[in-house]
Amino acid sequence: MLEITLGSAIIYYFASHALDIKEKPTDAVYYTELADPRNASFSRNHREMVQVKPALENQFRGIVRQAYDYSCGSAALTTLLNGYIGTNLTEQQTMEGLLRYGEYNRIIERRSFSLLDMKRFVTAIGFESGGYKGEFSDLVKQQQPAIVPISYAGFKHFVVFKAYKDGRVYVADPALGNISFDQERFKEIWENNTLFLINVPKDQQKDLLALQEADLRHVEDATINRYALVDTQYSYDYINKIADRASTMRRVIDQGDNSDTKGQPITTFMRLYYKRK
Q1: Average pLDDT for the chain
Q2: Which residues are CB-contacts of 224 (< 8 A; sequence separation ≥ 6)?
Q3: How confident is the model at residue 274 (pLDDT cuts 50, 70, 90)?
Q4: Which domain holds residue 230?
Q5: Structural domain contains residue 19
């Protein structure tokens, strides 16, 4: 009995130390494929791990999402401060700073923050900043992120200009995430050609808002315009087949006057129909 126990312990020890069992990442997905499709032997399978992340995570990469309908200004400023200066602020902290150093009564009255409120808060934390007016070429020439007001989908909104490349303007939108506009479309929605810049010494600048490969994956505007309002059409026969498959069958006598099987037993499908009150 002692020999069996000792033997089992030795086998367990060597087995547990011989196998290098690593903890699997939470975002790991394993897939298996045949290394040689001509041979279906399991021993020839190739197994590889890939890591997947929710699309939403990349959509809002480097962006502080606005917590309220009226807080795009504070979220955009927080995004700019964290991504370009390297602060580690939350939107709530930025809002408190804007309320403290900005025009408090006017903020409450209009339920939004202005570029002047942003300038006063940025000055309070030790940086120079200002709102400017210029042409599109001036915005691109700065080669740095800037807060720009836009009028989009019927709303006035603050976003962070990130970069311009090959006819497209890439922005960090506190509500929609990393998106881009066609150059001409951006010019149309850019409010009063206004931009808000923060002056940061070169050695203190961060590149967390720099353009990345994932930002370049966009659908052409023409494609969106072509398919956005197109209703999906399905074959009526196909829909009927699906409905029949999900129905209960029963045998009845065919009562159709023009039917070739009138008076004969046939299989029909019982369906349930619902209507709104």
Answers
A1: 80
A2: none
A3: very low
A4: 224-274
A5: no
d(CA 6, CA 189): 78
Residues 62 and 195 both lie in one domain = yes
Closest CA to 122 of 168, 172, 84, 77: 77
Q: Please, are residues 165 and 98 in contact by the beta-carbon 8 Å criterion?
A: no
Nearest partner of 90 among 114, 66, 112, judged by Cα: 66
**pLDDT of amino acid 265:** 86
Query: How confident is the model at residue 276, as a pLDDT?
Result: 47
The closest of 222, 220, 177 to 61, measured between CA atoms, is 177
Whether residues 132 and 256 fall in one domain? no
Structure-block tokens of residue 77? 């400023």
Rounded mean pLDDT of 135-162?
92
Task: Identify whether 184 is part of a domain.
Answer: yes
Number of domains in the chain: 2
| pLDDT tier at 28, thresholds 50, 70, 90 | confident
